[in-house]
Amino acid sequence: xxxxxxxxxxxxxxxxxxxxxxxxxxxxxxxxxxxxxxxxxxxxxxxxxxxxxxxxxxxxxxxxxxxxxxxxxxxxxxxxxxxxxxxxxxxxxxxxxxxxxxxxxxxxxxxxxxxxxxxxxxxxxxxxxxxxxxxxxxxxxxxxxxxxxxxxxxxxxxxxxxxxxxxxxxxxxxxxxxxxxxxxxxxxxxxxxxxxxxxxxxxxxxxxxxxxxxxxxxxxxxxxxxxxxxxxxxxxxxxxxxxxxxxxxxxxxxxxxxxxxxxxxxxxxxxxxxxxxxxxxxxxxxxxxxxxxxxxxxxxxxxxxxxxxxxxxxxxxxx
Length: 319
Prior knowledge:
- This protein is of the alpha/beta class and 319 residues long.
- The protein has 2 domains: 7-156, no CATH class; 170-319, no CATH class.
- 47% of the residues lie in helices and 12% in strands.
- The chain has helices at 33-38, 50-53, 84-97, 135-143, 158-180, 184-201, 203-213, 220-236, 241-255, 261-275, 282-294, 298-301, and strands at residues 11-15, 44-48, 64-68, 71-75, 101-106, 118-121, 127-132, 149-151.
- The strands form 2 sheets. Strands 2-1-5-8 form a 4-stranded parallel beta sheet. It has a 4-stranded mixed beta sheet with strand order 4-3-6-7, with no helix packed on it.
- Strand 6 (118-121) and strand 7 (127-132) form a beta hairpin.
- Helix 6 crosses helix 9, helix 9 runs antiparallel to helix 10 (261-275) and helix 10 (261-275) packs antiparallel against helix 11 (282-294).
- The longest helix is centred in the middle third of the chain and has 23 residues, at 158-180.
- The chain is elongated.
- The mean pLDDT is 95.
């Protein structure tokens, strides 16, 4: 499957400080090299800073998550300047206008934008836990549980980075399918393109979604809703080397009859070397693509697994 989207076609939300804007409490920023110089070459970022949006100045006093009885509020360390409801309201507003977003990258540890593990304090200033969620990011994620979301810090991990970008492109393809009008045929075609992607992430989901599409008692809209929830949930699971290797072996089986003994052995050895961690995924994939050019198999060529996003991102070179 080739990538048919232009940069302008894929819009990803991002915390403004990660996009280079000097909007943090100390008038600084936290530019993400991956976002600005790599992913930013292929997607269009739409930046938000909820703290500035609700009227907080730059620079400004710091704010934090404070647990007051059973309520979590966003305020200054002494409890003054409570902006909880204002940031919640802004989060709901952005969420309602963000149906065209295909992903979101939040600023880690932020009381407004942190996706997870944000520090929570007592009213007296004692740290209670590090499992809070930013008030703004929580509204975005609640409004669209399908939306691929990540934090800037976690994107330093090669596997998480690749997983996030793959989910963004999968979700964008789904959005394009929805915009064109979903039919049972289109749904089946979409699933056919994502079979090996699913297999590499979760074999149970691969089988479950296949059975879902075989049901005759569901309306197309209900089937589509269950399908995309199952797909995006499965894709959140990081694909293991074992699952990738098994998927590659399945693909090899489709055209191995065209290969001679030496070629089959070479491909099998490269897949095994990837499985045990001696080489990155791109090595056996490159050989498979080479053999597919020589011996075309339309079913395999349509698989999103082979080209889930622009090759120029080089996300499969590092693991």
